[in-house]
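Limitations
The C-alpha cells in this dataset are predictions for the assembled complex, not deposited experimental models. Users should treat interface geometry with appropriate caution, especially where small molecules or nucleic acid strands are included. An illustrative entry is reproduced here so readers can see what is and is not provided.
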Amino acid sequence: MKVNLMHGAGGEVMGELLRTITNLKNNNAGGIGLESLDDGAVIPINGQNIVFTTDSHVVSPIFFPGGDIGRIAVCGTINDLAMMGGRPIALSCGMIIPEGFEIADLERIVASMDAALGECGASLVTGDTKVLERSALDTIIVNTAGIGIVERPVRDNGLAIGDRIIVSGTLGDHGVAIMAHREGFEFGDQIRSDVSPLWSLVESAMAAGEIHAMKDPTRGGFANAINEMARKSGHGVVIEEESLPLRKSVRSAAGMLGIDPLEVANEGKVILGVKPEDAEAVLEAIRSHPYGRDAAIVGTVVEGSNVVMKTAIGGERFIEPPIGDPVPRVC
Amino acid sequence: MRTSGNITIRGIVQGVGFRPFVYAKAHGYGMRGTVKNLGSEVQIAACGERFEEFLRAVAKGTPLSRIDSVEVTPLAGEPPAGFTILESKAGSRSGFIPTDVAVCDECIADITAPGGRYEGYWATSCVNCGPRYSIITAIPYDRERTSMDVFPVCSPCEREYTDPACRRHHAQTIACAGCGPQLALLHADGTPVRAAEPIREAAALLDAGAIVAVRGIGGFHIACIEASAWTLKRRLGRTEQPLAVMATPEEAGRIADISGDEWKQLESRERPIVVLAKRDPDAHASISNLHTIGIMLPYTGLHHLLFASLSHPLLIMTSANLPGYPMITDLGQAVERLSGQVDYILTHDRRIVNRCDDSVVRDGFLIRLSRGYAPKRTPIDLGERCILGVGPELNANITIYRSGFAVTSPHVGNVRNPATLAYLQETVEKIGGIIGADYDRIVHDLHPQFLSTRYARELAEVTGAELLAVQHHRAHIAATTREECVGIAIDGVGYGDDGTIWGGEIFAGCVPDYDRVAHLEVALMPGGDLATRFPERMLYGIMPTEETRDLLASRGWSEVELAVLEKQVAKRFNVAETSSTGRVLDAASALLGLCRERTYDGEPAVKLESAAYRGRAAAWNLAFGSKDGREVFSTRSLLSEAYRRMQAGERIVDIAASVQYNLARGVAAMGVRAAEERGIPRVALSGGVAYNHAIREAIRAEVLAAGLEYVINKEYPLGDGCISYGQVVCGGSAER
Ligand SMILES: [Fe+3]
Ligand SMILES: [Mg+2]
Ligand SMILES: [Zn+2]
Ligand SMILES: [Zn+2]
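Predicted assembly:
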C-alpha cells in the first residue's frame, strides 16, 4: 500500500498512517510521550516539566486573509504547547524553500512570525534552512518546534463526566477562509482566518478554574477534536447545536458549498473540558480575552462513547470524525 | 388407514389459536390424545377412527398460522381418554411469532352488541385477532411473556379462556373492561381530563378541531379532523408533506378511486395505509397536495369505537415522531415530546414492547413493511450459516437468516441518529433473541460512512462473525430474484464500487455476481447531499449551462450564490458524481418549477409524478453513449429536451409526463439490450423509483414487448426496505 492524500486529510484514514509512523519502542522520555498522541510531549527534568512539540506547515496559499504561513507556523507550535498547559519559551524553525521563492515574501513571513512570538513572550532561538530545486518542491515548508514549561500538564484525555465543554470562539473560520481564498469563491463578506497564539488566553482560563482537558481543533476541525477527546477519555459528549458559535459568513459560505463548518480547521481556537462548577468563571476569563470574545459553553460530558449533537429542531445526530471527503448518503 | 399417530406441524403455530383449533377438531372427529406447543411446532398425539380426516383438518391450520410442514410418526403407547391441551414449551424457534392483526369482525360484533360482556371495550380481541408482535417479550407466546402479564384475568375471562368451545379459548390477549388494560384521556401535559368515557370525550374534542395523540398498537398516532390539518402541519413544521388518514370505508370510497385489489388490501388483516388515487386530484389538498392520498381503515377496537362516536368520517392519523426517528411508544416520552404539537393524549396502560409503524402499500407494492406484515418470514434455502443483514441507512430494517428462513423486522427508520441506531440495535437483539440467532456472517452496505456499517463492524467484532459488504443496488436485485437476470435498479443513492454514487444501474448476472453493464449518465452533485435537498443544484449539476444559470437567476438565486455554484462545479469542489435516477427526477422537478426544496423524502420526485399524472407523455428521441465499455443513457439530453420544450411553451404537465416516460424508455432500452446481448431471458426491476406508476409500467411494457420475462418482487419493498433481505440473500450466496 502507498501513501495517498487521504492519509494526510485528518480523520480515520490518517489514523492508520499514524499507527505506522509512531511504531517506535523508544517513544517516551519519562513523562508523556509519543504513545499518547497528545498535542505535545512532557519531559520532567529536575522537578520541572518541559513541554515539547513540533509541527510542519504547508499552506496554500501562503498569504491569506487573516494571516500567512509564518503566523501559522509559530501559532501552531505555541498552541500545541499551550494545549498541554505549557508556557511557551523558545522555538526553533526549519525552512525548506524552493528555488525562485521571492525574498520579499520571506521577509513578510519572518515579520509575521516575530509578531506572533511577541504576542506571547516566546522567542525563536534556533533554526535551519534548505533550498531545494524547483522540480523537487513547489512551495515553502516551515517546520517549528518549541519548548515550554508547565507545572501541571493538561491532557487531551482528561474529560470527566459532568464537565462542561467550552469552545473559545467561532468555529471553522480558518478552513473556510483558506478554501475561499484558494478556490476563489466570493461569498460576499470576506472570511478571515482565526490564526492566533493562544497562550495568554489559556493562561487566564487556567487561572480561573479547573481544566480537565484541552485540545485545539485544527485539522478535521471541531468534529475531529471533540471525538478524539471523547474517545481518549472513554466518555460521551453531548453538544447543543444552538450554542455552537459560528460566524454568519462562515455558516452561509459552508451552507452554499455543502460542507460542515465543524469539520474544517481552526488555528486560533481551543476546546476545553472544565469542571462544571468552574465553567462560568472560565468562560468569563476567556471572553475577556480579545481572542475569546465569542467563547461559549457548548456541551457536557456524559456516560457513553459517542459525540451527539442535539439539533435545533429537537433531533439528535452523531458528530463523527470526518473521513476525508464526505460521500452523499441521502436517498 | 391409520387410526393413530404423532403429528408434528411446523411453522407459525403459536399465538394463532392453534391448540384450541386442534382441540375443537379433535372433539369434532372424536379423537383422544394431547396437543402441545413447542415454540414453532405443535405436537399432536391422537388416536381415533377418523384419524385421517382429523389429520387433513388440522393440516389446514388457522387463519393466522403459517404451516411449513406436517409430519406423522407412529404413536407409541396408548393416549389417555379424552383430549387435553398441554403447557407450552420453548422448543425450536424456527417458526417465529405472528404479527399484529386488525380486530376481527366477530370481536367488533362483540364490542357493539348491547349488554354483552365486551360492549364498548376497546381492547377486545380473540385467538384470531389483536396485537401479537407489539406485546411479546419472549417466546413461546403465552400471556406471561407479553405485556398482558400485568392484567390478571377475571373469572368470566378465565372461563372463556379455558372453554374449548369459545373463540377465546387460550387467547393470550383475552381481557375485558373488568380486568384488562384501561384508557385515559390526558391533557398535553399529562394531567388527566375528567371524563367518564375517554373515547367519547376524545371524539368530541376531535370533532371540535382538537389535535389528539392516540396510543395505538405499535406506537402513538397524532389525530385530527381534516379542518385541523393546516394547524397540525404547522405545528409539526411539515407543511408540504402529505399525511395519512384513517377513514370509514364509505368515506374512503368517496375520496378515492379504489380498485378491487385495493379494497382487498384496505380490508385485509394487515390493514396497511393504502396509497390511492384521489377521485379529484385537487381535493383534500390540506391533507395531500398530490394526486394520491394514503388511507387506512380502523384496525383496533379503539379505532372502531372512536369512529362510532365521531361525527366526522375521517381522521388524519400520522405517526408521532420526528421524520426518520422511531415512533413514540411510551407515555412519558409522548408527554415530553408532543406537548407543543397535540392538545390531548388518549392513552392506555398496555405497554408497547416492540414498536411497529403502520405499513404502507401502493399498487400492491409494499412501501413500508411493518405492522401486519412484519416480522416477515420467508422460507428460503441459503445454507447452514446464520446471516444478519443490517440494511442500508435510510428506510432501514434488518433481516436475519437461520435454518431455511429469512426473517425481516418491521421498519426501523433512518439510521442516522442515536435513537434510531439504538432502535436498530434493539431490533437485532430482540428478533435475533426470539429466533435464537448466532451469526456466522454479517452483511452491510458498501457505504463507508453509514452508521449501520459501523454497527455491523462492532457486532462482528463482538460475535466473531465474518463481515461482508454488498453494494446497495446489487442487494436490490438480489432481493428481487435469485435467478440469472438483467437487473434494473432505479433508485436514490447508493455507494458504488468505484466510489461514485450509483442509482440508475443495469446489472447482468446471478446472485451475488452482478456485473454493472449500463447506467445513467454520470452527473455532478454540487455540494453532495446539499444537491438532494435543493434540487435546483442538481439541475445545474446535470446541465451546467448559461440557460440553467439564467433560469436559477430568474427564480431568485443571488449573484453570489450563482457564482459560487458555478465555481464549485467548474472546480469540482465538494462535488460528487452520481448516476442516480432519483436525482434526475429531482432535477426535472426543479426545472419545471415543481419543487425547489425537498422537505420530506422523495418530495421533488413525487411532485413531478403528480404533475405528470395530469399530463400526456410523448416519445422523444433518446441519446445513448458509452463510458468504460458500459452503455450510458444521456439524462443531460433528456433534460435539455425538456428545457427546450418548456421554452417553447409546452404544458408543464405534459413535459413532466414525457420526462418520466422517456427516462423509463431509456432505462428499459438498456436493460433489454443487455438481456438480448447476453441471452438472458428475464429482466428484474427494483429501487425506490419503481414505485412511480408511470415509470414502472413503461419499463414493464418495454420488457414484455421485447419478449422477455419481467420480474418484480411484491413481497418486499421496492425501496430500501428490501436491502437487508437482499444483503442476506447475497450473504447466503457468496462463498468465502
Ligand atoms: Fe435503494
Ligand atoms: Mg492538551
Ligand atoms: Zn377477534
Ligand atoms: Zn376480564
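Some entries come with short summary sentences. For this one: The pocket of zinc ion (ligand 4) is lined by residues B 153-154, 156-157, 175-176, 178-180 (CB under 6 Å).
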